[in-house]
From TrEMBL:
<feature type="region of interest" description="Disordered">
    <location>
        <begin position="19"/>
        <end position="59"/>
    </location>
</feature>
<dbReference type="InterPro" id="IPR027417">
    <property type="entry name" value="P-loop_NTPase"/>
</dbReference>
<keyword id="KW-0597">Phosphoprotein</keyword>
<protein>
    <recommendedName>
        <fullName>Uridine-cytidine kinase</fullName>
        <ecNumber>2.7.1.48</ecNumber>
    </recommendedName>
</protein>
<keyword id="KW-0832">Ubl conjugation</keyword>
<keyword id="KW-0539">Nucleus</keyword>
<comment type="subunit">
    <text>Interacts with RNF19B.</text>
</comment>
<dbReference type="GO" id="GO:0004849">
    <property type="term" value="F:uridine kinase activity"/>
</dbReference>
<dbReference type="GO" id="GO:0005524">
    <property type="term" value="F:ATP binding"/>
</dbReference>
<dbReference type="GO" id="GO:0044211">
    <property type="term" value="P:CTP salvage"/>
</dbReference>
<comment type="pathway">
    <text>Pyrimidine metabolism; CTP biosynthesis via salvage pathway; CTP from cytidine: step 1/3.</text>
</comment>
<keyword id="KW-0418">Kinase</keyword>
<dbReference type="GO" id="GO:0044206">
    <property type="term" value="P:UMP salvage"/>
</dbReference>
<dbReference type="InterPro" id="IPR006083">
    <property type="entry name" value="PRK/URK"/>
</dbReference>
<dbReference type="InterPro" id="IPR029057">
    <property type="entry name" value="PRTase-like"/>
</dbReference>
<comment type="pathway">
    <text>Pyrimidine metabolism; UMP biosynthesis via salvage pathway; UMP from uridine: step 1/1.</text>
</comment>
<feature type="domain" description="Phosphoribosyltransferase">
    <location>
        <begin position="318"/>
        <end position="514"/>
    </location>
</feature>
């Protein structure tokens, strides 16, 4: 499995933080890592186009730069309705065993230089029974189409193409079976799917946008297979040759070689063929550039002038709340005071958000032996998910009011070239699908990041009506975007401001919460009670 995310300082910072902290208290969290190495095979993508054309008739503060962007971060992106906007580009790599499919796939990934590329291997979909028993006697044909679970494979690839996260089996060539734990894989820009029978199934073929056949001489394949199977798959020479003559060679001739006819490109010599690799990479780049979209600017104009949605709950502006807003919105407020009063408001906000969780009646016995008719959370449990970086500042408030709460993190960063949000890092607690999720971001302006975060939660099967987006301050635009795309998501905030400027800042707005170091928000809680 190869999951590629763009390497940048912030991602690295959070990865290191997580490691130092030993994770978020759950060792089965899904994390994404690995920097994409740069490869000189092809020139990198053309600089992202950025055009600024603002009409004079547009209102001064709601105007947005009209930008043409190259999709980055974690497309397939989602449009203003929260549905998948563009599908992933799927490359199919077929060829005989040890022809160099994996090597070619890795070279394409390096040369593509695109964030979020997933490598899916057909090997993960080997059936386990009756293979395991027969394989021990070298009597099982792993090269026959019946050896693969095509149904699961098609389901998984179809979901990945739609940008959904999937669970994939992990195959062990030594024991001929699947490992207990399956791997979670997230949607990507590009999916590279490789396997000996990658072109042998009609449904699979329909999912492939580009079909590449790696054509390597059979003697070379046999020599490579001998070396690899001895060093990596726990085999001996006699067994390898027996299996090769009995199954691998005949199956190649009958099932694999003929599928070369489905290929768009045939690559002789595999990974050494730089000209062919260059052509493939150029084609993928051109296809990805066709998938340009502008999320923020689309959101900016989508719901102007509409009444605020019923799913929005703005906390009552008591004199206390009003006073705190005055402090945190004042540009002359010093850092300490800003943090102190923001934290105090966050605590109130979280309490307010929790008041929307459904409670069921329950009777308890008091120490005096009386019966008290009480209320208890109806449902499994509450999980907090912060949209990094700013949302992380709200975690402390949530932890202060919910005992032993589980926390997840989603790092969404604005691309400075495009102004678009990009998903860079994701870490969610295990089995989140039954939970009520308090999704935290300190401010929501256009709603693009919040939309993406909600989408990620839905991809993890969290129910839409169990998501409570909680934000200190929101712009009307952000409220509309989220409410329109996800009408069942509850939106909770302490105030809604009217406008967003052309840098997507909320106006009148507050200071930049995300620019403070996360540790500034983790000091002692002394004096925070109200
Ligand atoms: N061009 C090459 N030159 C030398 N060895 C190679 C080359 N391409 C692949 N190999 C080696 O051959 C073996 C099989 O390659 P791999 O890419 O895993 O093939 P496949 O995925 O088709 O089975 C690996 O050990 C790999 O390192
Ligand atoms: N338990 C298994 C499963 C598969 N094989 C052989 O692996 C080959 C496919 O993998 P490549 O990386 O070479 O594409 C295939 O030819 C099977 O014979 C195996 O030996 N044992």
């Amino acid at each position: 499995w190869s999951l590629q995310v763009p390497h940048n300082d912030l991602t690295a910072f959070y990865m290191e933080q997580q490691q130092e902290e030993g994770g978020s208290g759950d060792d089965s969290l899904d994390g994404l890592s690995n920097a994409v190495p740069r490869c000189p095979l092809t020139p990198s993508l053309s600089p992202r186009k950025r055009t600024t054309s603002q009409s004079k008739t547009e209102p001064p503060l709601l105007r947005t730069n009209k930008r043409t962007i190259y999709t980055a971060g974690r497309p397939p992106w989602y449009n203003v309705t929260g549905t998948t906007f563009k599908e992933a580009f799927v490359i199919g790599l077929c060829g005989g065993s040890a022809s160099g499919k994996t090597t070619v796939a890795n070279k394409i990934i390096e040369a593509l230089d695109v964030p979020w590329v997933v490598l899916l291997s057909m090997d993960s979909f080997y059936k386990v029974k009756p293979a395991q028993e027969l394989a021990a006697k070298n009597e099982y044909n792993f090269d026959h189409p019946d050896a693969f679970d095509f149904e699961l494979l098609v389901t998984v690839l179809r979901k990945l193409k739609k940008g959904k996260s999937v669970k994939v089996p992990v195959y062990d060539f030594t024991s001929h079976c699947r490992r207990k734990e399956w791997k979670t894989v997230y949607g990507a820009n590009v999916v590279i799917f490789e396997g000996i029978l990658a072109f042998a199934n009609k449904e699979l073929l329909k999912l492939l946008d580009m079909k590449v056949f790696v054509d390597t001489d059979s003697d070379i394949r046999l020599i490579r297979r001998l070396k690899r199977d001895i060093s990596q798959r726990g085999r001996n020479i006699g067994g390898i040759i027996k299996q090769y003559n009995k199954f691998v060679k005949p199956a190649f001739e009958q099932y694999i070689e003929p599928t070369v006819q489905s290929a768009d490109i045939v690559v002789p010599r595999g990974g050494e063929n730089f000209v062919a690799l260059d052509l493939i990479v150029q084609h993928v780049h051109s296809q990805l550039e066709k998938r340009e979209i502008t999320v923020r600017s689309a959101l900016a104009s989508a719901h102007q002038g509409q009444p605020l949605p019923k799913t929005l709950s703005v906390m009552e502006c008591t004199p206390q709340v009003h006073g705190m807003h005055t402090i945190i919105r004042n540009k002359d407020t010093n850092r300490d005071e800003f943090i102190f009063y923001s934290k105090r408001l966050m605590r109130l906000l979280i309490e307010h958000a929790l008041s929307f969780l459904p409670l069921k009646p329950v009777s308890v016995e008091t120490p005096q032996g009386g019966i008290y008719d009480g209320r208890r959370l109806s449902g499994k449990r509450i999980t907090g998910v912060s949209i990094l970086r700013a949302g992380e500042t709200m975690e402390q408030a949530l932890m202060a009011v919910c005992k032993d709460i589980r926390l997840g993190k989603i790092l969404i960063q604005t691309n400075h070239d495009t102004g678009e949000p990009e998903l860079h890092y994701l870490r969610l607690p295990k089995d989140i699908s039954e939970d009520y999720v308090i999704l935290m971001d300190s401010t929501v302006s256009t709603g693009a990041a919040a939309l993406m975060a909600v989408r990620v939660l839905l991809d993890h099967d969290v129910a839409e009506d169990k998501i409570f987006l909680s934000s200190l301050l929101m712009a009307e635009m952000g409220v509309h975007s989220v409410a329109y795309a996800f009408p069942k998501v509850r939106i909770i905030t302490t105030a809604v401001d009217k406008e967003v400027n052309d840098q997507f800042h909320i106006i009148p707005g507050i200071g930049e919460i995300g620019t403070s170091a996360p540790t500034d928000w983790c000091e002692s809680d002394d004096g925070m009670d109200f």
